[in-house]
Write a structure and sequence with these properties.
about 40% helix, 9 strands, alpha/beta, five-stranded parallel beta sheet
Length: about 220
């Protein structure tokens, strides 16, 4: 479902969660018809709802196959690891998975502040990857559907702190600076197939959000 290199930035997109689910389903079906492992990448700033959306897609999955989920939070090698995690996602998981049907990613041990065990992903079942850094230019080219989430800045910060506590609060500015550099270099929002503002979706209750709710990109 990749757009051509000269395509315009995704247009403002208004839809309910049910429409987004159908969009994911179509992307999976199209990948299957081309004998491709369906890859869905979800990106956006901290607190925008990437994890909640990924959890909802898994819980409500109606497309073919049994989806697997990889979270970028498990790949980043520390608080300054956004770029390294983004590169590792492509080089160690997505590229080999596309080429050979088997890729891997290395879990970061946050408690010990060091690399942890390797995790292997094999086979043709759908793969969802959520987190900042998924929609770099090289990664986006390997995806069947790229989703970018927008949300109000103050709300994002409140959501992120409520989720991760004061540990994240102490690193917010550091992470945001790295994220801004990623935005300037990779233009991930423009690499997406779908851009959605989910400010109106209550944090932590995405799975219960009524279908048909309007959200504006």
């Amino acid at each position: 479902m990749r757009r051509s290199a000269d395509s315009a930035e995704p247009a403002a997109w208004t839809a309910g969660l049910d429409v987004l689910e159908r969009t994911v389903g179509r992307a999976v079906m199209e990948a299957r018809t081309r004998n491709r492992l369906p890859i869905i990448l979800i990106d956006g700033p901290s607190g925008a709802g990437k994890s909640s959306l990924a959890d909802h897609l898994l819980a409500s999955w109606s497309a073919p196959g049994e989806p697997r989920l990889v979270r970028m939070d498990d790949l980043y090698p520390g608080w300054d690891g956004l770029d390294a995690g983004s590169v590792a996602l492509g080089a160690e998981l997505l590229v080999p998975l596309r080429a050979t049907g088997s890729g891997r990613w290395r879990r970061w041990d946050w408690a010990a502040d060091r690399p942890g065990e390797w995790e292997t992903v094999r086979g043709s079942e759908p793969l969802i990857v959520e987190g900042c850094g998924t929609l770099s230019r090289p990664n986006a080219e390997l995806a069947d559907l790229g989703i970018w989430l927008d949300a109000d800045d103050e709300l994002r910060r409140a959501r992120a702190i409520a989720r991760d506590g004061e540990t994240f609060a102490a690193h917010w500015d550091q992470w945001q600076d790295e994220f801004e550099r990623y935005l300037a270099r990779e233009n991930p929002r423009e690499n997406a197939d779908v851009v959605v503002d989910i400010t109106a979706w209550p944090f932590g209750t995405l799975a219960n959000q009524p279908t048909g709710t309007n959200v504006e990109a």
